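Input sequence (157 aa), recorded before submission:
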Amino acid sequence: MFKGLIVSGVFVLLIAQPSLAQDAAMKICGEKWQAAKASGSTNGATWPKFLADCRSSLPAAPASAPAVAPASAPAPAGKPNSKPAIDLPASAKVAGAPIFPPAVSAKFAELRPAQARQKTCSEQYQANKTTGGNAGLNWLEKGGGYWSQCNKKLKGV
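Predicted structure, token format:
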């Protein structure tokens, strides 16, 4: 029984090894892609083309050792393409009542009423993010988030 577990564990490791090499290649190539995009040196290449070229330029990992990123590689500075966090004072984030739109926006008049309300509320919610006008509410929350409360106000419920 114990011997069977060892054999199956070794088998799983042998199967997973190519996946580890692929993961390392994706990480390395992803970092190179982000650096190339930041410096404007992609030369019009798309991500799939860049990835194929990058993978072909990487040295093949030996069969006995899993491929890993070198220990001297610098850690990424943060998530690429992530939105910067808006630093509002804690009192602005929670204090007061949330700001809701007074009526459904005219630019969404051609949509169904439910969609028009949703887009109007979403637009106001996004605008409130910079000013703290959401009063600490998330878009969706158990028990009624911003969307739920805004939808009720616009329906007149």
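Checked by second reader. The CA atoms of residues 33 and 46 lie 10 Å apart.
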